[in-house]
Amino acid sequence: MLVPKAVGPNAAARKYDILSALSAHALSRDKHRQRQILRLISLITTRYNWQRNELSMGQAEIARLWSVDQRTVKREMTRFREIGWLRVKRAGARGRVTVHELDLGRIVMDTQESWHSIGPDFVARMSPDEPAPEPSSVVPFQRQPTGGAPEPDGSLWGHVRCRLHASDPATWSAWFAGLDDMGRTGDVQCLQAPSQFHATYVTNHYAERLTAVLRSFDPTVTGVRVTGK
């Protein structure tokens, strides 16, 4: 997933949206995860070069900022690399510190479940189906179809749509409203999303939920396949 750099006329707004997404994600997790994400936010706000996508900071300096020892720094930076939020851009050599870069696309993808905590306007402007109509405080993704309450049509997917909306309107609006029924392939329900990113995100985060609701109406369903247009 490509995310524009936070440079140009709307750079400040894009930075705030990334930091807002990280903050909301942190607050939805336990205290250990909150502390970990706060540490990353502190690196971004104090030493991250948005224009060059570079974080150049030695372990001793990070330890001082975080008020921890260097072993903790090494462990936490390794963890950020493992989950894909940080990547090594230039390995340290001859006394030079390792330069990292942020994978903003991965951070955006991993924080999406918390966007609704900020508000529907944030969800709408951070979603990926059509460009924002005018410059604003957004990362310029495309907008998801929000969709109102679905009308029952007697089909299996029609029943599932109504159940999903009734149980979680915010997630329905952000992720399920734009899914189209493409019929069955054997015992797998096929759905089409407005984009490949949308399809990938629903598959990674909601496939089990969709399958469970489908099976509550038709126990012969064994899974769901979501493709993008």
Question: What's the layout of helices and strands?
Answer:
Layout: H1 11-27, H2 31-47, E1 48-49, E2 54-56, H3 59-66, H4 70-82, E3 86-90, E4 99-102, H5 104-111, H6 115-118, H7 120-126, H8 156-167, H9 169-176, E5 180-185, E6 188-193, H10 196-217, E7 223-228
Parallel strand pairs: 6-7
Antiparallel strand pairs: 1-2, 2-4, 3-4, 5-6
Q: Give the strand tally.
A: 7
Task: Characterize the biggest β-sheet.
Answer: 4 strands, antiparallel
How many H/I helical runs? 10
Shape from CA axes?
A: elongated
Distance between the termini: 16 Å
Radius of gyration from CA coordinates: 20 Å
Mean pLDDT: 82
Percent range for β-strand residues: 5-15%
Helix/strand-derived class? alpha+beta
| SSE pattern | HHEEHHEEHHHHHEEHE
Strand order of the largest sheet: 1-2-4-3
Q: Low-confidence parts lasting 5 or more residues at pLDDT below 50?
A: 129-147
Helix amount = 40-55%
Care to describe what's here?
The chain has 229 residues and is α+β, with helices and mostly antiparallel strands. The chain contains ten helices and seven strands. A hairpin with a 4-residue loop joins strand 1 (48-49) and strand 2 (54-56). Helix 1 runs antiparallel to helix 2 (31-47). The protein is elongated and about 65 Å long. The protein starts with 10 loop residues before the first helix and ends with a strand.
Q: Could you name the key traits of this structure?
A:
three-stranded mixed sheet; 10 helices; 229 residues; four-stranded antiparallel sheet
Concise synopsis of the structure shown:
It is built from ten helices and seven strands. The protein has 229 residues and is of the alpha+beta class. Strands 1-2-4-3 form a four-stranded antiparallel β-sheet. The protein has a three-stranded mixed β-sheet with strand order 5-6-7.
